[in-house]
Amino acid sequence: MPMQVTETRSEGLKREYKVVLPAGDLASRVENQLNEIRAKAQIKGFRPGKVPVAHLRRLYGRSIMAEVMQEAVNDANRKIVEDNALRLAGAPRIDLAKDEAELEKAFAAKADLSYVVALEVLPKIEVGSFDDVQVERLVADIPDSEIDDNVKKLAERNRPFTAKDGEVVAETGDKVTIDFVGKVGGEVFQGGSAEDVDLVLGSGSFIPGFEEQLVGLKPGEERTINVTFPETYGEASLAGKPAEFAVTLKAVAAPGELAIDDDFAKGIGFESLEKLREMLRASLDREASLLSRRKWKRELLDALDKKYTFDLPEELVTREFDAIWRQAEAELKASGRTLDDEGTTEEQERATYRKIAERRVRLGLALAEIGDSAGVKVSDEEVAQALYERARQYPGMEKQFVDFYRGNPERLAEIRGPLFEEKVIDYVLGQSKVADRHVSKDELVKLVEEAEKAAEEEAQKSLGPAA
User: Fold this and answer.
1) Domain match, 310 and 452 both
2) Number of domains composing the chain
3) Residues 226, 327: one domain?
4) How far is CA 186 from the centre of its chain?
5) What's the CATH number where 289 sits?
């Protein structure tokens, strides 16, 4: 008797099928495997190929039946998917009968194996056209004066310095070499001490107020400097706190002349000053383009999020939410803060991240469908290039990094996925109505920051007071 499959549920994206695998079919599969083993088995007391099947059944029957059942279930799942032309959103879930006696009978091939397979399918998405999608693309015009400023900054970083001899004191513009030990609340803090540090006074490289207090110091002299870390300091445990540094001045060097010419450019690896300027312009253009992309990409994704409405696979949303929630918990723990400190509750945060998860899943499915319908592909060469770019962030371990990713298909998909998404986004942009607006670099930065702040506020507002 052939396998029996009956659909028992079809609601939204959820499907359930009752499957009956005949005992005779399972027994036949077990018998075939036992005969294969019999032909090869070498068991003490029996000649090769002459081991009784009954003896092999006692030795291996139960483990073989487990393999047979798993294989039969996999075959049934494939048949259900193929016969019904389903696109699964996740792995099938198998619900076996809870009656252990019935299961044991099926395991002994004395009764049919009956179970329910629950599936969740991907929604059908009508891609349509993008004539209704409008995007403003900011284009930053980089003036020659900004190139000049960047050349000067580069020249300043490469300015020659000559050691001062005799009775000298440190002045603004000098390069000093110092040792220092920093304390907060009378205790030395991690990262607050160093030796033989070069610092150009007036460069603004250190905490505000630090460099000014070194002016007038002589080589060999010590001074205690009192400063306060900015409220926006990167290390939260130090932000806004007063600190004192015991500083020893070891050497003072005076700045040399700053010549901005072809010789200067050649000294830092360029053919000429013009080639250096070309590199800087290309770099600034690329930086502005990436900044602009942040704004128009969000607008484009917002438009697609509103454009497409379809049921979301619960499994995909839950999986995305769990990943976001784990990351949020880890970041909160690392900062040493609690939700109370942040002025929120777990219920509110879960509601926020649930909406984020739903948006990501909706956009992910929509972009995947758009890309497939448009024939968007990511070549192996593009993946390899992106992989090597990422590997460069780990100097000395590039080969291990590349080998690890190439040996893990799931990890490699983490690189291919974003490349595919960016290609699809560029494709949609090409099919949409795009209005370019020329702005200055400062305007670009301001507009991007304002747009991101407004988007964050709108996201919070959309949750409502009961979130």
Assistant:
1) yes
2) 3
3) no
4) 40
5) 1.10.3120.10
**Residue 232 exposure: Cα atoms within 13 Å on the Cβ side:** 1
The C-alpha atoms of residue 206 and residue 221 are separated, in whole angstroms, by 20
Q: How far apart are CA 282 and CA 264, in angstroms?
A: 20
Spatial strand order of the sheet with 4-11 comes to 4-11, 14-21, 113-120, 93-96
Asked if 53 and 39 count as a contact pair (C-beta separation under 8 A), the reply is: no
Which CATH number do you get for residue 81?
A: 3.30.70.1050
Looking at the fold, whether 417 and 312 belong to one and the same domain comes out as: yes
Round to whole Å and give the CA distance between 387 and 394: 12
Number of alpha carbons in the 13 Å side-chain half-sphere of residue 257: 4
**25 and 4 in contact (C-beta within 8 Å)?**
no
Q: What is the DSSP letter of 407?
A: T
Mean pLDDT by 10 residues, the chain (467 residues): 86 93 82 72 68 65 78 90 92 80 75 89 94 94 93 87 88 94 93 93 92 94 94 87 95 90 91 95 95 95 94 94 93 85 88 93 96 95 93 89 90 92 96 95 92 77 43
What number of residues does the chain have? Answer: 467
CA–CA separation, 221 and 215 (whole Å) = 12
Distance CA 22, CA 114 (A): 9
Tokens of 360: 């990501």
User: Which two structure tokens, joined as six digits, stand for 200?
Assistant: 């150009």
Helices (H), 14-116: 23-40, 53-83, 100-107
Q: Which domain holds residue 96?
A: 4-120
Whether the Cβ atoms of residue 252 and residue 270 lie closer than 8 Å to each other: no
pTM above 0.85, yes or no: no
Regarding whether 234 and 322 lie in a shared domain, the answer is no
CA 184 to CA 194: how far, in whole Å? 15
Using N-to-C axis directions, what is the helix angle for 346-374 and 314-335, rounded to 10°?
Answer: 130
Q: Distances from the Cα of 81 to the Cαs of 7, 72, 369, 428, in angstroms?
A: 12, 14, 19, 31
- Helix (H) / strand (E) containing 251: strand 242-255
